[in-house]
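Interim report to the steering committee. The following record documents the input for Membrane protein (468 residues).
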Amino acid sequence: MSAPNIEQQENETTSTEFVRQPVPKSNWKSWKSFLGMYAGEHAAGTEFMIGPLFLTAGVSAFDLIIGLLIGNLMAVLSWRFLTAEIAVKNRLTLYYHLEKICGKNLVTGYNLANGVLFCFLAGAMITVSATAVGVPFNMEMPKLTDTLPNGITWIIIVIAIGLVISLVAAKGYDTVSKAANWMSPIIVLAFLACGIVALNQLGATSFKDFWDIWGQGSEPFPGQIKFTFWHVVLWSWFANAAMHIGMSDLSVFRFAKNAKSGWTTAAGMYIGHYMAWIAAALLYAVYLKTPEAQAFLGNGEAPPVAPGPLAYNAIGIFGIIAVILAGWTTANPTIYRAGLAFQAILPKTSTFWVTILAGSIATIAGIFPAFAMKLLGFVSLYGFILAPVGAIIVFEHFFADRFKVVSFYAEKKKINFNISVFLAWGISFAVFYLVSLKFDIFLSFLTLPAWVCCGIMFLIFSKFLQKQ
C-alpha cells in the first residue's frame, strides 16, 4: 500500500512544479503568497547571525542605520525591475532558462555549483536553529572561530532539524509558501520583542541612547574585518545577489500574476534585513556587557555569536521557538531552490527526492558551524560567484534585439555548450577575484562590476561568435 502512495505523491509534486515548462495561468499566485514567503525567509535565521556580526565588524550608528536603509532599497529595486520583470515574461525556472541560453553541458556545472552553495547557506540556518534547540540541554555553543562540531549532542540536534526541514521543502512550493505564511508573523513579533527588551536591558530610553549604542563605531573584534558605510550598503544590497541580480528567484516569481509582486520583497528587506538585523545586534550588545563576553575580549578572543541563548536571554522560551522557526523559514526555500538546481542535472529524478538530496547536503553542512560563523564572508563569496551568471539572462532579455543577438541561442541552434557564456563568466570572475586578492578588496565591492562586465562581454562574444 505504501509504495503506490509514495509514487503518486512524487508524480503529483513533479507535475505541479513545472520544472521544464512555463507555469500555466491556472497556477499563478497573488502577491499575498510572496509577501509571507519573503517576510518569513528574510526575517529569519540569517538575521540572528548577521545583526551581531555587524557589531563584531565595528560599525558606527550612521553606517548601520543609513547604510542598511539604502542597501535594502537597492535590493528591492533589483528584485522588482529585473528578477520579477523577466520571470513573468518567461515563467521558467532559472535552470531551464539558462539551459536554453547556455546548453545542457555548460549549465550542468552551474547548477551543481548553485545547488551546493544554496545547501551550504541552508546548512548555516540549520546551525542557527540548533543553537536554540541546544539551550534546554545546556549544550556548549559554537564559537566564532569554530569549524568542527563540538560534541555528539550538537550533531544529533542538527540531524534532527535537517530531517524535518528537508521533508517540508520536498513537498514543493505550495508547502514552503504555506509554512512561511504561518511562521513569519511569529518570527517578526519575536524580533520586535527582542529589540524592545534589549533596549530596556541596555538602559536606552531615547533615540540618542539608541544611537549611542553603536556611536562612532569601534575596532573590529579579533579575526573580523572593519565595516564602513559602503561595506554596509553594498553588503546589504548584494547579500541576496544570487537571488535578484543572479536571477535565482526566477524560480519563485514565475508563479506571480504580474511583476508588481516583486515589491513584496520589501517586507523581507525592511522587516528582516532592517528591523531584525538591528534587533539581533541589540541582543548581542546586551551580551557584550556580561562578564563572560568581557572575559573573551580580555583574552583577545571574539565572544561567541549563538542566536539561541541571545534570544532566550531576552524573551525566554518564546525566543527559543522563534530562533528554531527562523532557521526553518530560511532553510526551507533555500533547500527548495537547491533541489530545483539538482533536478536540472537529474531530470529523471522526482522533485521530492532531489530536494531530499539537497536537504541531506545542507544538514551535513549544518554540522560544521564555520558556515554560520563566517556568514558575512560566505554570503559575499557565493553572491560574487553566482550573480554574474544572472547578468547573462538580464542583458539578453533587455539588449538582445538591440545588439542583434539571438535569444535562447543554445536551444535554437541545438548546441550543448555556449562558449560566449563560458568566456563572459570565466573572464569576469577571474579578473575581479584576482583584483580582490591582489588589493585585499572585500568581494561585495566587486560584485556589481563583475556582473556588468559579464553581461557586456556576453553580448560582445555572442554578436561575434553567432555570426561564425
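The domain at 33-376 is CATH 1.10.4160.10 (Hydantoin permease). The committee is asked to note this result when reviewing the revised timeline.
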